[in-house]
Amino acid sequence: MKTLLITGGAGFIGSNFVHHWVKQHPEDRIINLDALTYAGNLENLNGIEPSENYRFVHGNICDADLVNTLFEDEKIDHVVHFAAESHVDRSITAPETFIKTNVHGTFPLLEAARKYWANDTRRRFLHVSTDEVYGSLEAGDPAFTETTAYAPNSPYSASKASSDHLVRAYFHTYDLPVITTNCSNNYGPYQFPEKLIPLVFIHALEGKPLPVYGDGKQIRDWLHVSDHCRGIDAVLQQGQPGETYNIGGCNEWANIDIVHQICTRLDGLHAGEKPKAELITYVTDRPGHDRRYAIDAGKIMHELGWKPEYTFETGIEQTLHWYLDNQGWWERVRDGEYRKFIEQQYKSLAG
Ligand code: NAD
Ligand code: DAU
Fold it and tell me: How many angstroms separate the alpha carbon of residue 289 from the centre of ligand 2?
C-alpha cells in the first residue's frame, strides 16, 4: 500500500484523478489537500468520501507547517501536485494569486519532500504542468516536444513555468525524484464552467450568446481528462525521475470549430429549434492570446505505452451527455450553491 498526497484534488483534473486512482489502486491511501478556492468543489468527490483509504484536508499548499505535518503524520510516499490557479483570463485580471499558489505554493511541497524523503529513490514527486509554458506556435510549426524552449506568454503560463523550473532544480541540486508532465487542453466531467467547452455548452443550452475571442481561429490540442489521468498514472509508475513527459491528444481544433461542433450536437438533440450557431458572438480578443498549441506525445507513447482511449468524437459525446445528465452540478456551481453544500456537509470548513 502506498500513500499519495494529491494537491488540488477537488478541482477538475484532480477530482477525476482521485476517482481514477481509487478505482485502479483501491489498496492505496489518498490524502487530498485542497484550499477549496472557487474552483474546488467537494461535490466532485461524491462517493469517495466514506472510503477508509481517503482523507480530505482543507488547507493551502503555501502553509509549510501543514504540509510538513502531513508528510510526518501520513508518511507520504508520492506527491501528485495539481493545485494551481488555472484560468488564463483570471491571471490577466488578477495575477497575484497565480504567483502565490503556483510558484510560492510549490516550494513548501518540494521542501517537505526533500526533508522527509531523505534521498529515498522509491518516492516520486509528480508535478502537473501545461503545454502553455512552451508559448505559441504558428501554423505549420512542429508540435511541442519535451525539448522545446520555454516561452510563456501569460501570467498563468509564466507562473507554471516558474514552478516547473523550481521542480527541475530540486532534481539537479538535491536528487529529489521529481517528474513533470506538460499536458494540452483537457475537457470532460467536472470542468468548471468558465472554460471554453462547458461554457459554450451551457450557454447554448440556455440560448445565451456564445463568446468567441478574436477571430476564433486560435488552435488548441484537446484531450479527454480521463486520458490525462491515465497518462499521469503511467508516468507515476514507470516514468524516470528528472524527466518530463508531454501528454496530448494529437487533436488540434480551432476554437470556432469546437463551438460549431457543440452547436451541431445540441441541434441534433433539440430538433426544430433555432440553430445554436446563431448564438455565436465574436468578442474582444484575450490580451496576448496564444495562437496555437500542439503536443508531440511521442515520448510517453513510445517509452511508457500510453495512448488516448477517447477519440474526440467519443470524448465530446461523453462529455456533453455528462453535462446534460448533471445539470444540478453545474447549476449549483454557477449560482454559488455548491459552496453552501460544502459548508453544510463540512461545517468545520465554513469561513
Ligand atoms: P482547477 O482550477 O479546476 O482546480 C484547481 C484546484 O486546486 C482546485 O480544487 C482549487 O481549490 C485547488 N487550489 C487552488 N489553489 C490552492 C492552494 N493554494 N492550496 C491548495 N489547493 C489549491 O484546475 P485544473 O484544470 O483541474 O488543473 C489542475 C492542474 O493541471 C493545474 O496545475 C493546471 O495548471 C494543470 N493543467 C490543466 C489543464 C486543463 O486543461 N485544465 C491542462 C494542462 C495542465
Ligand atoms: O493548454 C492547457 C491549458 O488549457 C491549461 O494549462 C489551462 O489551465 C486551461 O485553462 C486551458 O487554458 P486555455 O486558455 O486554452 O483554456 P480556455 O478554456 O480558457 O480557452 C480555450 C480557448 O478558447 C482559448 O483560445 C480561449 C478561447 N475562449 C475561451 C473562453 C472561455 C473563447 O474564445 N471564448 C471563451 O469564452
Answer: 10
User: Is the minimum distance from the CB of 132 to ligand 2 under 6 angstroms?
Assistant: yes
Domain tally, the chain: 1
Q: Is the CB of 13 under 6 A from ligand 2?
A: no
* 286 falls within a domain: yes
Residue whose cell numbers read 510516499: 77
Model pTM score:
0.97
Residue 3 corresponds to which cell in the numbers above?
500513500
| Domain interval for residue 244 | 3-256+282-348
The vertex-19 CA angle with 121 and 187, nearest 5°, equals 100
196 alpha carbon to ligand 2 midpoint, in Å? Answer: 6
Burial of 24 (0-12, 13-18, 19+ CB in 10 A): exposed
pLDDT in tens, 152-163: 999 999 999 999
**Mean pLDDT (the chain, rounded):** 95
What amino acid positions are annotated as catalytic residues?
A: 131-132, 156
For ligand 1, the distance from its centroid to the CA atom of residue 267, given in whole angstroms, is: 32
Q: What is the CATH number of the domain that holds 332?
A: 3.40.50.720
**Cβ of residue 88 lying under 6 Å from some atom of ligand 2:** yes
Nearest by Cα to 125 from 162, 71, 73, 85 = 71
Ligand 2, atom nearest to 87 Cα: 10
Neighbours of 224 (CB within 10 A): 25
Instruction: Express each pLDDT in 236-263 by its tens digit.
Output: 999 999 999 999 999 999 999 999 999 9
